[in-house]
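tool_call: predict_structure(chain=1)
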Amino acid sequence: MSGFRGFLLKTNAMALAVGVIIGIALGNVVNSLVNDLIMPPVGVLLGGVDFSALVIKLKDATTDAAGKPVPEVDIRWGNFINVVIAFIVIAFVVYWISKALIKEEVAGPSKTCPACKEANAVDATRCRACTSTI
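tool_result:
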């Protein structure tokens, strides 16, 4: 058990697990936002169209020779349109949330190594990449 505990702590598996759990929870929140708050007004704006009902029927439902029901065969292109719209909205919401929450650090002043062109701290005397004198 101690080897497994060491593996979890050493490889950041616990941080990955927490990230996955939070990602799933955020996915549920975003899906609810899309399905419950955004898609109903979109449907109203498009004249009350329910995209999931739009299909191209290839074969009607029948029964076979043994009396078993054979389901109908449809191309559900309306459902595909629904999923594409939901994906676009979800991608926009995730972009918006990540833009608001993740701030890039401003790089501090640096000087460039003349040999390898690597950025180094201003007070460095040797390059951190090639160890040449700056």
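agent: The radius of gyration is 28 Å. Proceeding to next step.
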